[in-house]
Amino acid sequence: MILIVDDDAAVRLSLRLLLTRNGFETREASSPKEAMEIVRSTTPELIILDMNFSRATTGEEGLILLKQIKIFHPDVPVILMTAWGSIPLAVDGIHAGAFDFITKPWDNQTLLQRINVALELNSPTEGTAVNTDFDRSFIIGKSPALLNVLDTISRIAATDAPVLIMGENGTGKELIAEAIHRNSRRRANAMVKVNLGGISSSLFESEMFGHKKGAFTGAVADREGRFAVANGGTIFLDEIGELDLNCQVKLLRVLQEHTYEMLGDSTPRRTDVRVVCATNADLPAMVAERTFREDLFYRINLITVTLPPLRERADDIPLLVNHIVARHCEATGRELPEISADAMDFLKTLPYPGNIRELKNFIERTLLVTQSRTLNAADFRGQYTGPAPCRQASASSLERKEQQAIELALAQSGGNLTRTAGLLGISRQALYRRMEKYGIKT
Predict the structure, then answer these.
(1) Count of domains for the chain
(2) In angstroms, how far apart are the furthest CA atoms of the chain?
(3) How far apart are CA 398 and CA 396, in angstroms?
(4) What would the mean pLDDT of 272-292 be, rounded to a whole number?
């Protein structure tokens, strides 16, 4: 059952007709008091909540009601409805535990998409094992940190939820984006990759939305933008932290409205894309410094996946080394050499600030320079030019770091467990187990 909370009878009627036509059962409430009576006696699957009631326009009534609802049903997703000019209030609602927000007047297909995403992500799942049908091609490793990431993306790949992939350079963010697309319902259509760090602000609109012939000097023919090429598929926006504020506004518009205009043409065009973003920047810090828009941040990070650096995946290094060696020998025709145990031990102690990309370059350089049939630690040590090897962190040290990470994510999400699990890149069930392990209370 979906609960519709709005003081406007016309809005309630419109939403009820839309939802019932699409197979949903609905209930309605015209006031906060009526909404709370329903919430106290039943558990809705989802709530669509207006932010203003009666003559009030501040949004405070909606925020108060949201917080009251979350006391009774902390895991029920709530979609806020607000005017475009009140998006800052909607962002406050996200801080208070709302799942998403949508602006009035709404687009029916967009609203239905958000509802389906919310319901799919909130459906119960058993255990944390990665779906056996999940295609994880080219993603090498079996460490708990990596498996947590794969568990998350295996559960959300089939939805249209926007995903933000965070992590240091060289951790494999693009591979994760490809896996999300490859396991999605959009896999038969294009995945368009855009490096936002390589697009100047003056060319942003032309690159992303396209242009008509004569729109500017040098526009000698019509050109489709990246959103048009990705229509029906996935658009991967890499290095989104490099986007300047002016371009952020333009991107927010298309993500919110699902429409755009080509340069030189005032006709709105619709776009149907799944958005996956990636960055090595600290976006929450950039939001605090006002160099990244908070409303855009909450639009792109419905699901956040944080990739662990290679130094925290030491057990995966032998698997990666063997894979890199095999691929190199296949490409060059070299006989497959043996990697000695002391060489593997040495490789597992290196800090790898460049992560998997650095490991790959290091292994291939050593293979090119050393032609012996067995590679030992001395062979690799002779080619290593990076920082000094480091000791492995103790188990107690790693557990302290994990506990601190959970406490920080809880604080950032205002105690919302669904968002906390998303920030950590783990399932809600895994979060519950870790909180019980460390005695963390909300």
Answers:
(1) 4
(2) 81
(3) 5
(4) 92
